[in-house]
Write a structure and sequence with these properties.
The complex is a heterodimer of chains A (380) and B (48).
Chain A lengths: L1 H12 L1 H4 L3 H18 L5 H14 L12 H11 L2 H13 L3 H5 L4 H6 L2 H12 L4 H8 L6 H11 L4 H13 L1 H12 L2 H4 L12 H18 L4 H16 L3 H25 L3 H4 L2 H31 L18 H13 L6 H28 L4
Helix pairs in contact in A: 3-4, 4-17, 5-17, 6-11, 6-16, 6-17, 9-10, 9-19, 10-11, 11-12, 12-19, 13-19, 13-20, 15-16, 16-17, 20-21
Chain B lengths: L2 H34 L4 H7 L1
Classes of the chains: A mainly alpha (380), B mainly alpha (48).
Chain lengths: 380, 48
């Protein structure tokens, strides 16, 4: 009697080992790899550390953390299903972003649009590879180079792809300094890369800075109302920053709220990386398509930059088109570094920052239009 | 052309065109905003 009781007690202790499968082990290793990239390599540590740990936690057999009542499931229901986490992150991003360089030269906003074209071209590629329309949307949005937007759209249309889409988006965003320069060099001539742009002069009044977020929100509400949660949150953060009268709220949004939500968001993304959902050929396809999306974004941005260069009589350096993606401020820095390699007197940083913040607005606008069109087509 | 492709091309055309057109209009509105509220360097310095 006693022996039987001891034996069943031991069995329950060893349950975790007996239930462990090769797929669980592989996913635990994937989690460890993300931790390694974050901790040792410094690649997006704020996200890869909680995502990696979440991936490990969710693949421990019998822990049931993603079952109803498990703490990861509770977080997931609370922040991803309700879309609350990406929206809160956007308030923080808005409070951190200085749209000044964009307001100095509003034409540059067009580069932020061209930098989103990769989203739609990748959507077509995903369809060609046999992904469903809504899955293709979620895959295409990796090209937004904007983590919260990718998470928002994916949780709306293909929540089962959330882990792979998010990890792909953040991985490629961190690889922007490696991915972009060869494309920029390939698509521009030596003469174009040497173009010096006039320095950005201060020409934006406080009123313009304060009214800008209100204008963008109202405009989005008219054009693509489904995107108002994203754009509204981004612009609320920016309004708090620019108004200067709610410094405490702006600081809290940019620091405490952004940090807490980043932790919870990362953990819940990791929690979606269960072996049964993540380990398949389709995940590899998502990673490949994500890479293509960011490559196409960069290419389209640079090509549009060339068009603007031609239209402006050679006063715009097409390299700044590469900053039309939303990976802020990394791609702007890449543009500055590449520009300096060809012309030591060329200081493209502020122009590239303008294009980069334009890319931030462009990615949200593209997602907003996507959400509204899908709604209009009756798919969601 | 089957349904997924109609969906894909619709979204691509409206998405690319819509994003470009929206941001172009937005850039014009920002220009208008700058004209309505021009930068006054002296005032900004006084504010400081």
């Amino acid at each position: 009697m006693l022996w039987q009781s001891v034996l069943s007690g031991l069995q329950s202790l060893l349950g975790g080992i007996t239930q462990l499968t090769l797929a669980h082990l592989v996913m635990i290793l994937v989690g460890c790899l993300l931790l390694y990239l974050g901790i040792q390599r410094g690649i997006e540590p704020l996200l890869f550390v909680p995502i990696g740990f979440g991936a490990i936690l969710v693949n421990i057999p019998l822990a049931a953390l993603m079952e109803e009542g498990g703490f990861l499931r509770t977080l997931y229901n609370m922040g991803i299903i309700t879309e609350l986490f990406p929206i809160l992150i956007f308030i923080g991003i808005g409070a951190m972003t200085d749209f000044g360089p964009l307001l100095e030269n509003p034409k540059i906003l067009l580069l932020g649009a061209a930098g989103q074209f990769g989203i739609f071209l990748t959507l077509l590629l995903a369809l060609a590879l046999g992904y469903s329309p809504l899955e293709s949307l979620a895959i295409g949005i990796i090209g937004a180079c904007d983590g919260p937007t990718a998470i928002y759209v994916t949780s709306n249309y293909a929540p089962h792809l959330l882990g792979s889409v998010s990890v792909a988006a953040y991985s490629y965003m961190s690889l922007v300094p490696i991915i972009q320069p060869p494309i920029m060099r390939f698509l521009t001539t030596d003469r174009e890369r040497k173009i010096s742009m006039h320095s950005v002069r201060k020409s934006v009044s406080r009123n313009t800075r304060v009214l800008f977020p209100i204008l963008v929100t109202l405009f989005t509400a008219l054009v693509a109302p489904m995107g108002v949660p994203l754009m509204g949150a981004l612009m609320l953060g920016n309004l708090m920053k620019e108004s200067g009268c709610v410094e405490r709220l702006a600081n809290t949004s940019a620091n405490e709220i952004a940090n807490i939500v980043t932790l919870l968001l990362g953990l819940t993304i990791g929690a979606t990386m269960e072996a049964s959902q993540f380990l398949n050929v389709r995940t590899l396809g998502i990673f490949a398509l994500g890479f293509i999306a960011i490559t196409l974004d960069t290419a389209m941005g640079v090509l549009f930059g060339k068009l603007m260069c031609f239209a402006s009589g050679g006063t715009i350096n097409p390299l700044i088109g590469a900053a039309g993606i939303s990976a802020f401020p990394m791609s702007a820095r890449v543009v500055q570094v590449v520009g300096l390699q060809y012309n030591k007197k060329s200081h493209l940083l502020m122009h590239a920052m303008g294009a980069n913040t334009g890319g931030q607005i462009g990615s949200v606008m593209a997602a907003a239009i996507m959400l509204s069109v899908v709604r209009g087509l009756g798919l969601r | 052309m089957n349904e997924p492709w109609i969906f894909g091309w619709t979204l691509t055309i409206i998405g690319m065109g819509g994003t470009l057109a929206s941001l172009w209009v937005l850039s014009l509105l920002i220009g208008l905003l700058k004209k309505l509220f021009p930068y006054d360097g002296e005032q900004a310095q006084r504010g400081r």
